Amino acid sequence: MADLLLDAGALLGESPRWHAAEARLYWVDIDAHRIHRTDPETGATETMQLDGPVGCVAPRARGGLVMGLKNGCAVIDAWGEAPRPFGPAVLAGIPEQRFNDGCVDAAGRFWVGSVTSDKANPAAMLFRLDPYGEITPMVGGLLTSNGAAFSPDGRTFYHADTPTHALRAYDVDPATGELGEDRLFHQFEPGAGRPDGGTVDAEGCYWSALWDGWRVVRLSPTGELLQTVELPVQRPSMIALGGADLRTAFVTSAGKNLTDEDRKAQPHAGGLFTFRVDVPGMVQPGFAG
After folding, report:
1. Which of 19, 102, 176, 234 is buried most, with the most CB atoms less than 10 Å from its CB?
2. Which segments constitute the SMP-30/Gluconolactonase/LRE-like region domain (predicted)?
3. Is residue 243 domain-resident?
4. What CATH code is carried by the domain that includes residue 113?
5. Neighbours of 160 (CB within 10 A)
């Protein structure tokens, strides 16, 4: 069972990213339009308030952050600065979409996908933002782009369209960032949780947070279920591995749209949870833009 690190009360906690150099965990509350920076030793948390939803963040190699916002991507050079657009606003004029989940590959490219509120129209997409500002559509026909992560050798890309209950694995050329063939990596049973955000550890195993599943799971490189960690909240949203030895798991969660009964059963919904793992994570590369 995981422990509560921070009773954050987030509406839609997401995108935990461990910043090794700062020994801080960055994460967002999408619906509250906030970016948080937490010291896991003390729980002390700094907050940046934005004027719109922030789907995901990742550290930049030169300092600051890259982020997926409502209409496009943005960067900051230092904590507390106002985000400035980076690359084209590819979602501008599409009110039912915003950016959601994202990650950085070893070449410093930002892979970021969108989510659509129009669930009858699978029009969301996964994009690749290159360091010089070009943004390229990579996968289309999605409802909720999620779970983006790379294998340790950079040759496999993991991704989920959450409502399908499926995780898929793509061949990828680490040099060019081009995707090849995809395959079903793991299919979760309907009604038992849907794959949301994920990460990969040093053994190449994939950790997935299961929305409406009350748990996170660890899958082998072939998609076999290896481990389950129960959580005291219904909607864990994403997992990151960090800490000084990269063996601390951090899990965000969501507290919105819960009934009074739900809140009694999970008073810490929207909290930030933690537990220890046997296999460390990997230091995440920074966005090169």
Report:
1. 102
2. 12-254
3. yes
4. 2.120.10.30
5. 28
The alpha carbon of 245 is separated from its chain's Cα centroid by a whole number of angstroms, namely 21
- Dist CA 202 CA 45 (whole Å): 28
For 6-41, write each residue's pLDDT tens digit.
Answer: 999 999 999 999 999 999 999 999 999 999 999 999
- Cα separation, 269 vs 115, whole angstroms: 22
CB-based contacts of 264: which residues, under 8 Å, 6+ apart? none
Q: What is the pLDDT of residues 247-282, one digit of tens each?
A: 999 999 999 988 889 889 999 999 999 999 999 999
CA 195 from centroid of its chain's CA atoms? 11
Residue with tokens 């000084």: 244
CA atoms of 154 and 200, how far apart (whole Å): 11
107 three-class SS: coil
- Options 29, 105, 196, 201, the catalytic residue: 196
Average pLDDT, rounded, for the chain? 97
In a domain, 244, yes or no: yes
What is residue 119's predicted lDDT score, i.e. its pLDDT?
85
CA distances from 88 to 56, 92, 130, 134 (A): 17, 9, 11, 8
Distance CA 243, CA 232 (A): 22
Structural domains of the chain, count: 1
Helix (H) or strand (E) holding 233: none
Handedness of CA 71, 75, 81, 85 (dihedral sign): negative
**Dihedral, CA of residue 35, residue 41, residue 44 and residue 46, to nearest 10:** -30
Give just the sign of the alpha carbon dihedral 257, 260, 263, 265.
Answer: negative
* Structural domain includes residue 289: no
Which residue range is the domain that position 51 belongs to?
Answer: 3-276
Is 140 among the domain residues? yes
Has 196 been annotated as catalytic?
yes
